[in-house]
C-alpha cells in the first residue's frame, strides 16, 4: 500500500489532500486504489478528494462505486460530470473529475504522460475580446517561466471548432485561502515561522518575475497554491503583465481587497503593487483578518493597525510592505533577503 492508501483507509483528510497529486491513480497488489480504501472504510470526505480515481477497476474488475455500501457514497461516485473534449494536440491527456469553476474557466483533474495534472478549460465564446486577450497573455507568459515557486505549465492547446482554450499545469494540493479557512474553523493560527516561510517563498517568486519585468497584479491567497512537498507556488497569470520600455502601467486590474491604493485611485503603478498584496496576505495570516476593512480605509492616510503578538521584525516588514506610498515599500528582493534571515 502507498502512503496515500494508508491515509485514505484511516480517514486522514489532510494527508490525502497533500499526497493526492503525487500518488493518486496508483494501485496495490489487489488493484485497489486509495479511493477504494476510503470507500471501503466509509470515509466520505477522503473519497471526495479522490474522485480522479473512480474510473479505475480493481483486480476483479470492480470500480470504487461497486465497493460502496452507503447510498450517499454511491451517488457521489456515480455522479459523473460532463467533461469537455480536449483538442487533438492534447490527446495524451484525459479529464477525470472537475476541481473547481472560475470566472475565466473550469479546472479539471486529468492524467496523461504518466502524471496527474490540472487542466484549465476556457470556453472562449463566453468571453469578450479583452478577456480573450488576458487568456492569451497567460498562455504566452506562463510557459516561459521556470522557478520552483511558480506553477509549471506543461502544455497549452486551442480548438477553434469547439472554441476552447486549454492550459495544462502541474497538480497542486490546495491553496493558502483553503488553508486559512481550515485553520479558522479549527481555531488554529499560523506560527511565526510559517508566516515567514510563505512570505519568503512568494517573495522568491516575485523576485524572479520582477527580474524578468513581469508583474503578477492579482496576488491573493487563492493564487498561492500548495505543492505536495509544502512549497508555495504562485499561480493564475491571467492578468499578469510584461513590462515594456516603461516600468509603469495604468490598467485597473486585480482583486479589490488585495489592490494597492494607487491601483484603486487609477493612478500609474509599478511592480510594488505585488509587494503590497503580499503584505496583505502576511497580515491576514498573522491576524485572521485583513489590514483594512474596506476600500475607503485603503485610500485613507491612516496605516494598518499594528500587528500584536508577533516578532517586531515580522511586524515591521509587513508594515513596510503595506506602506501607502509605493516608494517607501521594500522591493520583492528586499523582502526575500529579510525573510531568508528567519529560516
Describe this structure in words.
- This protein has 343 residues and is α+β, with helices and mostly antiparallel strands.
- The protein has helices at residues 3-10, 13-23, 34-40, 44-49, 64-67, 71-78, 129-141, 176-185, 192-211, 261-264, 272-287, 295-299, 312-321, 332-340, and strands spanning 93-102, 105-112, 115-123, 153-159, 164-170, 174-175, 214-215, 224-226, 232-234, 241-242.
- It folds into 3 domains: 3-78, Ankyrin repeat-containing domain (Serine Threonine Protein Phosphatase 5, Tetratricopeptide repeat, Alpha Horseshoe), CATH 1.25.40.20; 88-170, 2-Layer Sandwich (Phosphorylase Kinase, domain 1), CATH 3.30.200; 174-341, Transferase(Phosphotransferase) domain 1 (Transferase(Phosphotransferase), domain 1).
- Strands 1-2-3-5-4 form a 5-stranded antiparallel beta sheet, with no helix packed on it. A 3-stranded antiparallel beta sheet has the order 6-8-9.
- The longest helix is centred in the middle third of the chain and has 20 residues, at 192-211.
- The chain starts with a helix and ends with a helix.
